[in-house]
């Protein structure tokens, strides 16, 4: 880069016109322009000049270089906030750019340090600085409790960082999930019972009307007003999935118009009540494996059995 | 066969047939086929004792024998039959519900004798049921039991003149299994008149007895254990279908099972195909034909596949009850219920998740089950420590470094059924041990109570006009504290018995699943 800079100074006039031409080209193609089409558009200049001009534009931060599906792509860089902030030095600018490129997924300190090649203390100082100016913010990730990720201040963190509807601060709201789990089941159960009350229906019709779509469940849940955040049908489906794993709900897929299919859910009754084995104290005994007739722990002197027989 | 089963078998045999029989059986269980003298030598028993014990066990179909190298007779134990002693009360109760008191007593006699002559059984029952005059009713009950295959005919000794064989050879025609001999009124009467001539059955195999030849001589009957198991299995299938799909579906499955009850072999995969019209005809409460068909369709769409569509040609189609799938579904439900009870509902969710998705990493488990990582880890490790889930390492590099290894969790229902069954056997042994212990500790009070009852009976018999004061005096021989400990003892015994009987349901479900697997 240093070499090309020197050259630029030596022959300043040609590159300048070239630069403005390239910028204009890029302005016309806001999605970016590939290396080849750029080459054919500015055919009047040789390769060296073109490279010099592009390098200069890149260092000035007016262009950005992207890797597209068909090779390199040049794109006009949107005038970022960094330019408008006074008192930002080059290092801060670098860190800012790294954070900006991470988007709403955020980036971890170690990654930043790795990318900008600065000292840890320096990076920390810059981050602190930028944070106090409300240019960037730190968000705690749910993936790793102790890991902070940085992103631009005005960005909404991605679901993978916040964990979606089930997290408040990076804590998993297991109680919220449990309540939703119970309410969804209650709704489906109610639907089943209502269907069974209609004695005039045929078995198939009874069965069909016990099923509900995730949208119906969502509607019920939103009416209850137990959720502070707005839930999507997908959120409800994850909850309904937990009910499937609980063995309380079954799922079926029905085709709807234009070849798509829709998931329907129905409350499921268990095949057996609690197993009879669970009625004996031994089934839940913590020292079952140590128990031996005549041993230190034995059925003869078992305290659990004593209590159970008293009952 | 596990050591737990052996221990339970020992307890059961000791309780029902005494210590020597139990010792012999336990030796055979540990060592397999063994000749008579070797048993006596190694088990430190007298030859005669062992011989008697073996006779007893063979009589009750608990032991079997074969000839090795044409001259050594060896013996072994039928562990399935020994463990089915647990079910004897259930057999008797079932028969009582189905066919009444006479049948109950017939089965009781049959269980007590192991194998029994029809005439003896009828005579004994008639003695015990004095109010039911005439053996006709009892004979009918007996015939009912045979026709529904609850009793079966034992193979007969082949008459062989040559002295080539050292053990009796048995033959049996498949067709004869449930064929009744014709009993003349005369033979029954004679049986009743000479009370003492009951031949010693334990020696039947060896004795050349000279009792007057009644028509049913040599035709012995025994309780058909697999038929009872089949009945229990049908019951549990109907119960679970009713539980999940409601009464009409339960009735439909019951009808299907009843139609193919006698014609389906015990170890069949599924019942014979039955048309929906036939099912509708044999329902106790008539349902509209289209309802029956719709119920059947819904049942066959269920993922457990208890009822399956066999062939949809013709009107309505043919349906079967898939017995293997039912066994699997019931065993799975039992295992899940156990997990739920022991580890909680969230652990159960994880367990079922693993069942549905086969192999998962810990992180995936947390995400799918929506359980916080810390909790999920706790449940998983707890279940892993107690062998409920299996962990499989899949290393990405040959060095098995933890950071570069996938740890996949999975569950295996078959394995767990086995584990759970053994747990049930151990629990059963525990309950029995505790029961025996209770009787031992309260022996003094129990003896005293027995004495007092005896005195009361005697007083009532000898002095019909004994006054209140005298009876009260007898009552007061028992102090109030003794009385309370007696009631407490009885309460505890009841509790233990109930638990043991309930445990049988679980044992049955798991056992029949494992049997269905091994027979397939």
UniProtKB/TrEMBL annotation, chain A:
It holds the Pfam family RNA_pol_Rpc34. GO terms for biological process: transcription by RNA polymerase III. Keywords: DNA-directed RNA polymerase, Nucleus, Transcription. Its main location: nucleus. Gene3D superfamilies: Winged helix-like DNA-binding domain superfamily/Winged helix DNA-binding domain (1.10.10.10). GO terms for cellular component: cytoplasm; nucleoplasm; RNA polymerase III complex. It is found in: Nucleus. Belongs to the eukaryotic RPC34/RPC39 RNA polymerase subunit family. DNA-dependent RNA polymerase catalyzes the transcription of DNA into RNA using the four ribonucleoside triphosphates as substrates. Specific peripheric component of RNA polymerase III which synthesizes small RNAs, such as 5S rRNA and tRNAs. Component of the RNA polymerase III complex consisting of 17 subunits: a ten-subunit horseshoe-shaped catalytic core composed of POLR3A/RPC1, POLR3B/RPC2, POLR1C/RPAC1, POLR1D/RPAC2, POLR3K/RPC10, POLR2E/RPABC1, POLR2F/RPABC2, POLR2H/RPABC3, POLR2K/RPABC4 and POLR2L/RPABC5; a mobile stalk composed of two subunits POLR3H/RPC8 and CRCP/RPC9, protruding from the core and functioning primarily in transcription initiation; and additional subunits homologous to general transcription factors of the RNA polymerase II machinery, POLR3C/RPC3-POLR3F/RPC6-POLR3G/RPC7 heterotrimer required for transcription initiation and POLR3D/RPC4-POLR3E/RPC5 heterodimer involved in both transcription initiation and termination. This is DNA-directed RNA polymerase III subunit RPC6. It comes from Ciona intestinalis (Transparent sea squirt). The lineage of its organism: Eukaryota, Metazoa, Chordata, Tunicata, Ascidiacea.
TrEMBL record, chain B:
Keywords: DNA-directed RNA polymerase, Nucleus, Transcription. One of its GO terms (cellular component) is RNA polymerase III complex. The keyword Iron does not apply. InterPro entries: POLR3C_WHD, RNA_pol_III_RPC82-rel_HTH, RNA_pol_III_Rpc82_C, RPC3, WH-like_DNA-bd_sf. The keyword Transcription applies. Component of the RNA polymerase III (Pol III) complex consisting of 17 subunits. This is DNA-directed RNA polymerase III subunit RPC3. It comes from Ciona intestinalis. The lineage of its organism: Eukaryota, Metazoa, Chordata, Tunicata, Ascidiacea. The gene is LOC100186818.
